[in-house]
Amino acid sequence: MAGALATCDMATVLEGVRAARGWSQGDLARAIDYSQSWVSRVVNGQQSLTISQVHDLARRLDIPLHLLRFGGAPSQARPAEKGVDTTRRRDFGRAVAAGALLTATAVTTATAAAAPAAPDPLPDAVDETTAPSLRAITGGQRRMDATAPARHLLPSAVAHVHLAEQMLGHSHGTPFHGELSAAASEAAGFAAWLHADRGDMGSARSHYRAAVMRARQADMRLLDVYMLGSLAAFETDTAEDHHLGLGLVQEAEHVLGPRAHPTARAWLACVGALAHAGNGDGAAAARALDRAEREAARSANTDPPWPWVFAFDEAKVAGYRARVGVRLRRPHDARRAFAEAFAPKGANPKQSAVLQVELASAHAEAGDVDEAFRLVHEALNTGVRFGSERIVGRVRAFRRQYAGTRARCVADLDDRLLSLVSGITAYG
C-alpha cells in the first residue's frame, strides 16, 4: 500500500480497500458514490483519474492527502516469487502471466496494509484438524453448487474465506501454516467461481488471484497449477482475454513440469486449446487437444490427484474439442465431438446449461436453427432458475451473434430475454 500511495496508484488502493473490507465492487461503488462500471474501469487500469477525482476518493476513503504523492519515484520492485523469473522470460505468454501475478502481489500487499491490524498469532487456535475442517467446508459448498443458486452460496463462501484467512493468521510459526495456506486457497478459488457465476468479474478476478497467491505460499505444486489454470480458464472463457489466458496456461505448464499426473496435464492442455482457439490458432489448438488425448489415455490416469475431484478422461477431452470447434466456427466438427463427449444433461445442471449453449452455437452454424434455439431455451430456463448471470450472459451472447432468419423460435427467445430485463411478462 505504501508503494501504491507513493505513486498515486489508485487502482491498487481501491482494490486493497475493497478486499480488506470484504466488499464486492458494487459495495465499494456505493461507499464512494460512483458507478460500479466506473470503479471496474479504474481497478482494471482502463480509466484515468483527474487530480480532483483522486482528492475526492481520498476524502471518501479517509486517506490523508499528504500520503498521496503525484508522480513520485517508483517504489522498489518486489522480489519475484519462487518459481517465477520475470527478468529472463522472453516468451510473451509467460511475461503476461508474470505480470498478472505481480499485480496479485500488489493487491495482496495493499490488502494487508489497508486491513485492520491482524490478530497476534495464536498457535493454540490451530492444530492438525483445522485445515481438514476448513477444506471439508469448502468441499461441502462445492457439492451444493450443483443444485443451489450462487446468490445463496456466496455470502457463506465469502465468510468462509475470511475464516480461513483468520486461521491462517493464527498459524504463523506452527507446522500447520502450509496446510492452512492451501485451505485458504481452495476457499478463495470457490468464492471466485461464485462471483463469476454472478457476473461480478472484478471480485472473481481478485479472489482467483488470492487463490493463486495462497497456493504458492502453501508450496504445493499441483494446487498452484490448479489455481493458475482456473484463473486462465476464467480469463479465456468468461472474460474472453485469450492472450492473458494463454499466458497463464504457459506459466502453469512451467510450474507443472513434464512428469506430472496425466489428469493435470490433460486438463491444462484443454484449457490451453480453448485459449488458442480464441486467438484463431486452430493448429495450436489441435496440437494441445492431441496432447490431452494422449495424457487422458495413459494407464496412470485413474485416481485424480488432489485438488482434482474427477479424472480427466477422453469424454471430457471430447467436450473441449467440441468447444474448440465452436470457437473456430467448424460446426460439423463440433457436433461430432459433442456426440462423443459427455451428455449435456449431466450431474451439474449449471455446467450442462453452459454446454447446451455451446452445442446450440454449433447447430446454428450448421443451419439447424430449431434445435439451436431449443437448446438455448432450455439453458436459459436453467440460468434463470439458478440466478446464474454466467448462463444468461452466454445466451445473450448467442443471440447477439445469431444473424440468420427470424423464425418463430427466434422471436420467442427475444420475448423471453426482454421479459428478463423489463419484467413486463412472467418468465415461463
List the helices and strands and how they pair.
Layout: H1 2-6, H2 10-20, H3 25-32, H4 36-43, H5 51-60, H6 92-114, H7 130-144, H8 150-170, H9 177-197, H10 201-218, H11 221-238, H12 242-256, H13 262-278, H14 282-296, H15 314-327, H16 331-340, H17 349-365, H18 369-386, H19 389-401, H20 408-422
Brief summary:
This protein has 428 residues and is mostly helical. The protein contains 20 helices and no strands. It has helices at residues 2-6, 10-20, 25-32, 36-43, 51-60, 92-114, 130-144, 150-170, 177-197, 201-218, 221-238, 242-256, 262-278, 282-296, 314-327, 331-340, 349-365, 369-386, 389-401, 408-422.
Would you write up a description of this structure?
The protein is mainly α and 428 residues long. Among the domains are: 2-76, 434 Repressor (Amino-terminal Domain); 349-428, no CATH class. 68% of the residues lie in helices and 0% in strands. It contains 20 helices and no strands. The protein has helices at 2-6, 10-20, 25-32, 36-43, 51-60, 92-114, 130-144, 150-170, 177-197, 201-218, 221-238, 242-256, 262-278, 282-296, 314-327, 331-340, 349-365, 369-386, 389-401, 408-422. α13 runs parallel beside α15 (314-327) and α17 (349-365) runs parallel beside α19. It starts with a helix and ends in a 6-residue tail after the last helix. Residues 70-118 have low confidence and may be disordered.
